[in-house]
Design a protein that fits this description.
single chain, alpha+beta, eight-stranded antiparallel β-sheet, 7 helices, 8 strands
Length: about 210
């Protein structure tokens, strides 16, 4: 690992050169963590009482890798690359949004009640575009979708994408939008705030400005 590269990740995502070593990260961690948490607040959207989506970008992914390296004391390029191989899959490409869905259940009774009922939720979320009936539906991230082998119960965490056409990006930019769940066992709707919509529009255009690390 060397000093992090300027700007955002290359076409292949973050590299080991984008990640600070443990001592360098410790020096800037408090400030970087504070700024990432501020950005996450705009990118975290509750959908009904038990679901939250966190829209991922280079800052959320870089923070996750830095924190994993810190906790696990990963100091080699090979170890960091292993984390990047996992988390780079969460980065959106232009024309799409990438999100982690958290089904937030705190008791065994709630887990037993909801997780069998919410099978298929990873394909039952959508971004509603303005006042039109048009919606952009979620699909599971490819590797995550391949790992969903149990038909009788769903995981509490999903990785999903929303793929927009150029016309849909234009509609998203032109007016209010909402995040919805349309599942036989769960329906909810949340209007996206202006700050959230601005962040997501930058993702769709591939124009997000990463936070400086250090």
């Amino acid at each position: 690992m060397s000093s992090p590269t300027a700007g955002g990740p290359g076409p292949g995502g973050l590299t080991v050169d984008d990640i600070l070593d443990l001592r360098a990260y410790e020096r800037v961690r408090d400030d970087f963590r504070r700024r990432v948490m501020e950005r996450k607040r705009r990118r975290r959207v509750p959908v009904g009482p038990i679901m939250t989506l966190l829209f991922e970008n280079v800052d959320t992914v870089r923070f996750q890798v830095q924190e994993m390296a810190r906790v696990e004391k990963i100091a080699t390029d090979e170890g960091i690359q292993g984390e990047l191989d996992v988390y780079n899959r969460l980065l959106p490409t232009p024309g799409e949004l990438s999100a982690t869905l958290f089904i937030e259940l705190t008791s065994e009774a709630d887990l037993r009640h909801w997780l069998p009922r919410l099978v298929g939720i990873e394909r039952a979320l959508a971004v509603e575009l303005g006042s039109t009936a048009q919606a952009v539906w979620s699909v599971p991230e490819e590797a995550h979708g391949q790992a969903l082998s149990r038909e009788e119960i769903t995981p509490a965490v999903h990785y999903v994408r929303f793929r927009f056409s150029e016309a849909q990006v234009a509609r998203f930019a032109s007016g209010p939008s909402a995040l919805v769940a349309r599942h036989p066992e769960y329906e909810a709707r949340t209007e996206l705030g202006e700050a959230t919509r601005a962040d997501l529009l930058a993702d769709l255009g591939g124009e997000g400005e990463p936070l400086p690390l250090g």
